[in-house]
Write a structure and sequence with these properties.
mainly alpha, Four Helix Bundle (Hemerythrin (Met), subunit A), about 200 residues
Length: about 200
């Protein structure tokens, strides 16, 4: 006779039968996002004259900031063993990240790159512009490149950490979340920092 498993997290419902389908969906979504991010800086879509997308960087920064807040709430709730609130906070963080990706891709498919230190907006740094930001530009590039690199690789890990929780594999979820959460939080936190450093050049 099979002994029924006791759910160690009352209030949470697991869906182990959905794990395989969710993993396939996660790989597809990750691949699509990777392709979009790879081509969005090479191809630009025409924008109707009455459309203004210059507000999107600020929106992206706000969304990233809210994601960081949701992740802090998620960490607080799991420390308090309030697993239902922990799950809900993570769901909010994931939803915000999806919204961010949509806005981020939309902006970069329709707008030229903004270069740090480019005061005249010609897309290039003159000798005088380079000299003016020589002291702070290395710091900006360090934050930016680490943000971009981690943002580019973190999505599938976020999705698979979430899938493990949905499937009821809580021990595996915890093990993966211990290193996924800090990286996700870093990406969310550095997004607004990059925007604030770059905002005067938009």
């Amino acid at each position: 006779m099979e002994i029924p498993r006791i759910n160690p997290y009352p209030g949470l419902t697991a869906y182990p039968k959905k794990e395989k389908g969710l993993k396939i969906a996660a790989w597809i979504v990750s691949a699509v996002v990777l392709v979009l991010v790879g081509v969005m800086r090479q191809y630009k879509l025409p924008v109707p004259e009455n459309w203004d997308v210059t507000f999107l960087p600020a929106v992206n920064a706000i969304i990233n900031g809210l994601t960081a807040v949701a992740l802090l709430a998620s960490l607080y709730f799991v420390k308090q063993k309030n697993y239902l609130a922990h799950r809900n906070a993570n769901a909010v963080a994931l939803g915000l990240s999806v919204l961010f990706l949509a806005c981020y891709v939309a902006y970069h498919f329709t707008s030229p790159e903004v270069v740090y230190g480019d005061l005249d907006g010609d897309g290039m740094l003159s000798a005088a512009e380079s000299e003016a930001v020589a002291g702070i530009r290395p710091l900006y590039l360090t934050i930016l490149l680490s943000h971009i690199f981690l943002a580019g690789i973190i999505l599938p890990f976020i999705l698979f950490t979430t899938i493990r929780a949905i499937a009821g594999k809580y021990a595996e979820h915890r093990k993966m979340a211990r290193w996924v959460w800090p990286l996700w939080f870093y990406v969310a936190l550095t997004g607004p920092i990059v925007y604030l450093m770059l905002s005067k050049y938009y």
